[in-house]
Amino acid sequence: MRASKDLDIELKLLLDAIYLKYHYDFRGYAMASLKRRMTLAADHFGCPTLSHLQGRLIHEPDLFPELLNYLTVQVSEMFRDPSYFRSLRESVVPLLRTYPSLKVWVAGCSTGEEVYSLAILLREEGLLERTLIYATDINTQALQKAEAGVYAVDRIAAFTQNHSQSGASASLSDYYTAAYGNAVFDRTLKKHIVFSDHSLATDSVFAEVQLLSCRNVLIYFNRELQERALGLFKDSLCRRGFLGLGARESLRFSQHASAFSSLVWEDRLFQKG
Amino acid sequence: MDFESLRGRIDAVVVGASAGGVDALVTVLPSLPRAFRPSVLVVIHQPRERRSMLVDIFSARCALPVREAQDKEPVQPGTLYFAPPDYHLLVDEGPSLALSADDPVLFSRPSIDVLFESAADVYGHRLAGLILTGANSDGARGLAAVRDAGGVTLVQRPDTAHVATMPAAALARGPADFVLSLEQIADLLRRVGGGHEG
């Protein structure tokens, strides 16, 4: 267990170094996953130990964006968990229609698959024209990819299948053009999306929204940071606003649980108040 | 290794299974008595449908409580946990359970390696790792991590496995403390974890 304890010490020091040097705060992340990702990153950079990686990160700032990709990027799919989107259509959209204008927040949007999924869903439901979607992440490289809205064409088959299972009336191909092995998503979707750097660990509320989707982000946080993020979500949502979490996430252990009621439990859709 | 010396030492058993795994687990898990003290954490490769039948299948047959692992849940003794479909299951400080949606490892999510490596990190020599039938090499690296941390390694005898690839891959990576049939594995677990001496 000696080696493991050493690794814990090194990880803690590395997170402190990253915070001091780059102001990214991973100290509230769940340790098991973070340790795994950081070890993979050290391997990738050819560093035999996390201490070695720490030294390089301090002296070679160019490494940091690449490390950030190791720590934050998740490969998702468009319309991942199609039943989530079906439930949004069936249980949330009818209530969203009652608002003259809508704001939606996708927190931790990574490379944007979920953002475009929601934009397409809202267009199909006739709501996108009055909607502004905030897509936020701490990783600016991922945000640039999200903003580009270009995905490898070999991923489109899975996206298309998910989309059709989400209760869509149209075909996903209505929303992209294929070119040179890529699918480029419709620019008119982007007019309704603002991509922005925002940290659930260190930043605060920036808008009042009717719908907030944050799936498979909270599982990477420890309890304390989860509480912070859920507090931000609670304060960002309007009265009776909607919160969507990942398929195996819940509010069960949170002190904010009482601020929400379960709308569609199987799809982790909650309503404030 | 003399398994009498293991009595009372094991806090958790991590189990990995793939093709043929449900039948193998039906032979092993229901035989664990109510007094079985270690926690049992299981990764079995299965389709990524959201709803898993594993909890239903094993609740009906097992003396121990059976649950789908939830993120941040403290690990309880004498409880069987299954990784949810399409998430990795890890052991975190506490010990508590943690889920991740990281990329599949060896095309698998949940991944046996991810569970075993994280559990070895937290439990060290108080962990037992068990590799059962399967058609890929997931778990080989994880079982090596259990061994390196001083834990106990068990592998289903490949010639008794529905598909021998996974136990054979685990053994190719390094020796196991016990290479046994399913019935022998069940017997060993009962002796190691069922008693109150220790």
TrEMBL record, chain A:
Which keywords fit this entry according to its UniProt record?
Methyltransferase, Transferase
Q: Which Pfam families match?
A: CheR (PF01739), CheR_N (PF03705)
> Which PANTHER family does this UniProt record tie to the protein?
CHEMOTAXIS PROTEIN, CHEMOTAXIS PROTEIN METHYLTRANSFERASE
Domain CheR-type methyltransferase: from-to ranges: 1-251
UniProt-recorded name of the protein: Protein-glutamate O-methyltransferase CheR
Q: Name one GO molecular function term.
A: S-adenosylmethionine-dependent methyltransferase activity
Per the record, the GO terms for biological process are: methylation
TrEMBL record, chain B:
Residues annotated as the enzyme's active site: 18, 45, 138
CheB-type methylesterase domain: from which residue to which, for each copy? 13-186
Catalytic activity entry: [protein]-L-glutamate 5-O-methyl ester + H2O = L-glutamyl-[protein] + methanol + H(+)
> This protein's superkingdom?
Bacteria
- EC assignment: the record states 3.1.1.61
What enzyme category does the UniProt record give?
hydrolase
CDD domains reported for this sequence: CheB
GO CC annotations, alphabetized = cytoplasm
Q: Keywords on this record? A: Chemotaxis, Hydrolase
Q: What is this protein called in UniProt? A: protein-glutamate methylesterase
Species: Myxococcus xanthus
Read off the lineage from the record. Answer: Bacteria, Pseudomonadati, Myxococcota, Myxococcia, Myxococcales
